[in-house]
Structures are given as C-alpha cells and as structure tokens.
Specification:
Elements: E1 6-10, H1 18-25, H2 29-34, E2 36-41, H3 43-52, E3 58-62, E4 74-79, H4 94-112, E5 118-121, H5 126-131, H6 139-146, E6 153-157, E7 162-165, H7 172-178, H8 181-197, E8 205-208, H9 224-238, E9 243-247, H10 249-257, E10 263-266, H11 269-280, E11 285-289, E12 297-300, H12 317-329
Parallel strand pairs: 1-2, 1-5, 2-4, 3-4, 5-12, 7-10, 8-9, 8-10
Antiparallel strand pairs: 6-7, 6-11, 11-12
Helix pairs in contact: 1-3, 4-6, 8-9
C-alpha cells in the first residue's frame, strides 16, 4: 500500500517555464522519497522540457491515478492532450491559457475524489488564461470558485518570512474598501489554523497597518486601522489567538524576519509580496489557505518567465519548495 502522499503537479502555461521546472524538480530523487508526484498536463510539452533540460527520464502517460508508477526516473503524466505541438514557446497564447485552466480543473477534481492528497501548481499567465475564456485574476480565485469557497486567503512562505493577505488581485483603492473587521478576523483565524496544522504551538500573528505608521493615532489616513482592523484583532484575541497589531508596515516584516512573529497579515497584494520577493523569489512559495473539502494547494512564487522559457535557464528551487510544503501540509493518517 502506498504510504507517500500523492501530489498532483499542474503544468501551468505550457509556453512558459512550467514544464522545465517540473522536469528539473523531478530529477531530485528525494522528492520520490517523500511523495508520489504526478504531473497533470499535456505530455508533448513535458517531452520538450525533457529534451531542453537534457534529462535522463522517461514518461508514463496515464488516464487514471491508479496507473501511475511513482518511480524515480519515470515521470507519471495524467495526460490532457489539448495543445497543438507547434505552440510557440515564450508567447501569450489563448490556447495555452485555456489548457492551464483545464489542468487546474482536473487537479481539483482529483483532489475532491481523494485520488491526490495535494495540488502543486506551476505558473499560469493571467493574460493568456483570460484570452482563453477564463476571467479569473489567478490561481487563488480559480481554486476558490472550483471548491465553492468564500473565506480563503493567499499565504506566501519563505524560509525567513510568512505572509497572509486580506486582499490580493484588486486595485489599491478597492483593496482598502474590501477590508472590514470580519475579513480581518477570518484571515487571522486562517493564519492560526494553517500554522497550527504545520506544527506551531501558539502561532504569533502580527497584523500590518493600512496607512503609513499604522495611522499613528489618526495622524495618517481616516481611521482605517481603528475601523477595519482593530475590531477583528480584538475578536481573535478573545478566542485565545495570539495576535497583535496593527503595526507600522515599514517595520513589521523586519520584526517577523527577526523572529518576533511567525506570520504577518498584510492588507493588500504588494504590501505582502514585496518583502517576500526581496528576500528571494526562488525561495518563496504560495499557499491557498481555507479551501473547502480540505483541498491543499501550494505553488511556486514566480511567473511564467516567457523571456527565458525553453532555454534551460529557469531554476527549480521554488518548485521543489512548493512540493515539499505540499507534503508537509497533508494531514497524517
């Protein structure tokens, strides 16, 4: 009986670096020691990636997870053959965008059927996906829709810093409008739950302010911290969650890196993404927190990198980190 968790790795946009970083990651034998990986995508582009990376591996094409071999040196591919072989590499393509969506859709189906225990996604291109007919802002929103989840969040994780977001793919004015005490409370609770599952005893959670200096007692802004953040923080504290703030955004991430906090609640996309990426894009991963049905999803924390696709330049470090994190998040039986 297979004891390793089955991790479904979606190919992402086939015109980007996804196929390459997947092949490179699966050349690391230790991955097969900790999990049973299966790629969900179009086999033709895995084959191209094997050639580009000069990898001594073969493909095992499957139509059902039970046919996978999970053997190092042979990549299992749940084949969704929907992209023309002549697809240009390194260009925005509606065809590749639609395919990337279909790979994620199949992965969610397999997760809901308990045939895989977690999903790990290679990058998709938002422009290509939308031109392919799927009007989503990104993976997080796709997964929320496919799992009928309303309360979810994007968490970024690196070796030195973890960040979870109140809002993500919206403009700054809209982001501030969307923040309210209940959303603040729910994201704090999600942060506490995911870190507790990961083995933290009492996660120390910090909430970043919205305004410079977290408003500095009304000096900056219009009382957003008092109206939108503090009531949610107090509610979480009353439930025994170790959360504090709001703290000035220009220092709270530094303090977290130095060990004062286990995770920071960021108010909007760039507030959380910039510190993670400054610390090193190759080391960061993306986790969708709170999906219904216990669906687990991790991802690389970089894009499709069309400019280097097909050139055997892209690093697999973030993909390796994402696979390992997916394994860590799978509950023990």
């Amino acid at each position: 009986m297979l004891k390793r968790p089955v991790i479904g790795i979606t190919m992402g946009d086939a015109a980007g670096v996804g196929p390459e970083i997947i092949v490179k990651a699966l050349k690391h034998s230790d991955i097969y020691d900790i999990c049973a990986p299966v790629v969900i995508g179009d086999w033709k582009f895995l084959k191209k990636a094997i050639e580009v990376t000069k990898s001594d591996v073969s493909l095992n094409l499957i139509e059902d997870i039970k046919d996978a071999r999970f053997s190092y040196g042979q990549i299992d591919c749940f084949n969704i053959d929907i992209i023309p072989e002549a697809l240009p590499i390194g260009e925005v393509s509606p065809t590749a965008g639609n395919a990337a969506f279909q790979f994620v859709k199949k992965a969610v189906e397999l997760a809901q059927q308990k045939k895989i225990q977690a999903i790990c996604t290679a990058p998709l291109n938002k422009e290509a996906m939308q031109k392919g007919g799927h009007k989503f802002a990104g993976h997080t929103e796709i997964l929320a829709r496919l799992t009928n989840t309303e309360d979810y969040s994007m968490m970024l994780s690196s070796p030195k810093l973890k960040v979870i977001h109140l809002t993500t793919h919206v403009g700054l004015v809209k982001a501030i409008e969307m923040i309210n005490p209940e959303r603040t409370y729910k994201v704090i609770k999600l942060a506490d739950e995911v870190l507790t599952r990961a083995g933290y005893k009492r996660p120390k959670i910090a909430v970043s302010g919205i305004n410079p200096h977290a408003g500095e007692n009304g000096l900056f802004g219009n009382g957003e911290e008092e109206k939108k953040l503090i009531p949610g923080i107090v509610k979480a504290q009353q439930e025994g969650i170790e959360v504090s703030g709001p703290y000035p955004p220009d220092t709270v991430f530094f303090r977290a890196v130095n060990g004062d906090f286990d995770i920071v609640v960021a108010c909007y996309h760039d507030q959380g993404h910039i510190p993670i990426k400054v610390l090193g894009m190759e080391d960061g991963i993306n986790v969708t927190v709170g999906l219904n049905g216990g669906v687990i999803r991790t991802s690389v924390d970089h894009g499709t990198a069309f400019d280097i696709a097909g050139k055997n330049i892209a690093s697999e470090k973030s993909m390796l980190a994402a696979i390992r994190s997916a394994v860590e998040l799978v509950p023990e039986n």
